[in-house]
Write a structure and sequence with these properties.
With about 70 residues, the protein is an all-alpha fold. It is built from two helices and no strands. Helix 1 runs antiparallel to helix 2. The longest helix has 29 residues, at about 1-30. The radius of gyration is 15 Å and the shape is elongated.
Length: about 70
């Protein structure tokens, strides 16, 4: 039961992070936020995005196939 709660919380946190990212992308497209064109920042965003996706996939995999 504790594993289920842990994996479910990972999924929920991942969804919140993805929603926050979508909101930021919309604001960027509308011109409300200004992002500097630095490759280091883009790499950091990519790593963060991949980590969140990995946690979501890991949690779903563990819930469905455990």
């Amino acid at each position: 039961m504790i594993k289920f709660i842990f994996y479910l919380s990972l999924i929920i946190l991942g969804m919140f992070a993805m929603r926050f990212g979508i909101i930021q992308i919309r604001k960027y497209k509308q011109g409300q936020t200004k992002v500097k064109k630095k490759s280091l920042e883009q790499i950091a965003f990519g790593v963060f995005f991949i980590i969140i996706l990995g946690l979501i996939i890991y949690s779903i995999n563990s819930l469905l196939f455990s």
